[in-house]
Every structure is written in C-alpha cells, then in structure tokens.
Amino acid sequence: MGFEAISSIMEHVRPHEVFTLGPFSITSTVVNTWIMMVILIAGLFVTTRTISFLPRGVQHILEMVMEFLYGLLEEAMGKEGRRYLPLVATLFIFILFLNLSWIIPGMKPPTMDISTTLAFGVTTIILVQFIGIKKRGLIGYIKHFFQPAPFLFPLNVIEELVKPVSLSLRLFGNMFGEEMVIAILFIMLPFLLPTPIMLLGVLMGFIQAFVFTLLTITYITNFIHGH
Amino acid sequence: MEAIFHALNFDITTFVFQVINLLVVMGLLYFILFKPLGKVLAEREAKIEGNLKDAETAKVKAESMLKEYQQQLQNARQEAQAILERANKMGEETRNEIVTKAQNEANRILEQARGEIEGEKSKALAAIRSEAANIALLAATKVLERSLTPEVQERLAREAVSEVERLQ
Asked: Quick check: A115 and B14 CB within 8 A?
C-alpha cells in the first residue's frame, strides 16, 4: 500500500488552517488545544482557589489523581519519584483532556493529529534525557548508552530515538482509529450503536493517557535505576 | 521520510506550537495545581504521621499505666488478703481468750458455790446434831428421871447421838 492511499484517507481528517500568525499557519489542532487549555487552566484555577486542609468537592478528585500518580511514581522509584510528578501528571491530565475533547460538539481531539502526539512524545523523551543527565551526570548519562556491553551502543541510541515515535504513534493510532470507528458506525447505523462506542471512546481516552504516562514513568525509572 | 510525515498530516508549525503548549500547561499546572495541592498533601501526610506517632506513644504510655495499675491491684489484693488473715487470726485468738476466761470464771463461780454449799451443809448438820442431841437428852432425861442411873442415861444419850449421825 502506497503513501498515496494513506494520504487519501488522511486527507479527510487533515487539520484545516484557521488563521495565520505572521509566517505561521495556525491549524484547527492548535486552536482546539488552546480552547482545551483555557478550559483546563480556568477550571483548575477556580477549583484550586478553595484548596483546604480538609478536602471538599472537586479537591477530592484532584487529590485522588495526584495520589494515584504518586502511587505509580513511588512504586517505580520510591519516595524520590515524587519530584517527577509535574511532568507525569501534566502529561496524564493534559492528554486525557485532549483525548476527551470530542465530547464538545464539533471539536476534533488534537491527539488525533500526529503533530500533537509527536510533539508530546519528543518533548517527553527530551525531558527524560535531561532527568537522566541530572541524575547520573553527563559522563554517567553517556556511559549509560554503553551498558550492559559497549557493542550495544547503537541499539541503545536507536532505543532512545524510537521511544518518542513509539509513544506518539501509539497515542495517535488509537485516537485516530477510535474516531474513525465512531465516524464509520455513525454513517452505517446512526442510531443506538454510536453511543456505546462513544462510551468506549471515553474509556479509550483514559487508557491512552494512562499508557502514555506509565511509559514515561518507565523511561524515567530506566535512567534512575538502570536497565 | 518526508512523504510519510506528509501522508500522516505532520505539520512542523503545529508540532512547535504543541511543544510550547505542553510546556506552558506544565508550567501553569505546576503553580496552579501541583504546588498548592502537593503542599496540602504533604501537610496532611505530616499531620497523619504525627498523629500516628502520638497514638503510638499514647499506646505505650497506656500499656505501661495498665501494667502499673495491674501491679497495684495485685498488691492491694495481697494486702487485703493479709489483713483478712490477720483479722481472722486475731478474732480466733480473742474468741479463744474470751472462751478460756469465761470457762475459768464459770469454774471459779462453780467452786465458790460448791464451797458455800459445803459450808452451809456443815452448818446445818452441826445445828441438826446439836438440836437432836438436845432433844434426845431432853427425852431421855424425862424418861430416865424416873428409872435410870446417871451412867445408863449417858450411855443411852450417846447411842441416841450416834443413831442420829448414822441417820444423817
């Protein structure tokens, strides 16, 4: 199957240009992300104004998410893992929000765009490399690529390079596939069936955000505790 | 490679914007959410740990107090038992003493009564003897005034006295 075939399918979901910012063309993906960012940040800003020692209302949910991620980090890295919460929790919350943005009518999840998932994957892996350098020192970080045996250096480098691709394609593929299934089912059987599939979409949104987060934790752990 | 990216709708501008967006969200969430909520969670954790420690200390103290009280209770029981035994012993001794005293007193009273009775009896016997002798003497005197010699009179009187004594 040639790229033309893929291209013709992807043509239907190509993000359209909304406006230009100087030389840059701002696509619907970026605009949708901004909308979701505003909702997320504004919602959290309002919610966290009333944070108290004794939790009330939405604070329970936020604490539950934090405790859950603390649990994952501590399980992998012990108490030290807590310091990586901002990276891990941002990925989880932000990707979850973007994954579930299709709930808003007319909005296409930005995670359906490979540009978004690749941006997240690359940023995450670069940050993980920084964590590795900070943790092991530059020499230790470079040495890490020659372990457990020096001849594995090329494989280790490829492994690091493949990580962002793997992260992005997994998230993109799942979100794209799920959206396609819903779209096709909606055309074939507009009543009843899309609803349970949409519920499945909610679950998928959670699972994909969780998988992305869990893999990030695993990558950080690799640098902290070695292979 | 470029063909793949193009086929998958990859757009470098969107990529860069999304990287910036992610970093912005990370920064904002750090100040809006993670920092304040992390602080509250840490405070709560510290408080719970403190409370658990306090509870542990209180438990140890309570156990030691319980042990102390149990020891005191045991001592008090032993002391009470000792007092009871002492009191029983004293009671027994007092009882024995009183009984002995009473027996002695009773014996003494009995002896005294017996002595008095013996005295009275002797007195009565003497009186009877004397009276009988007088009566016999009188009777004999009356009889013998007419027929007997003084020697026979005395012999008869003696016989009469000895008869009275035998009768007694």
From this structure: yes
State ipTM: 0.90
Contact criterion met (CB < 8 Å) for A119 and B43: no
How close does chain A come to B28, measured CA to CA in Å?
Answer: 7
**Measured between beta carbons, which residues in chain A are less than 8 angstroms from residue B24?**
37
- 3-state SS record for A10-51: HHCCCCCEEEEECCEEEEHHHHHHHHHHHHHHHHHHHHHCCC
Answer yes or no: do B11 and A63 touch at CB < 8 A: no
Chain A hits for B48, CB-CB cut-off 8 Å, are none
Give strand pairing partners of A27. Answer: A17
Q: Which domain covers residue A215, as residue numbers?
A: 3-225
B10 has a chain A CB within 8 A of its CB: yes
Q: Please state, in angstroms and rounded to a whole number, the distance separating the CA atoms of residues A173 and A177.
A: 6
Distance in Å from the first CA to the final CA of chain A: 38
Res. A151: pLDDT tops 60: yes
For A34-71, the pLDDT digits (tens) are 999 999 999 999 988 888 888 888 888 888 989 999 99
Please give the tally of structural domains in chain A.
1
Contact in structure between A97 and A110 (CB atoms under 8 Å): no
Where do the structural domains in chain B lie, given as residue ranges? 2-167
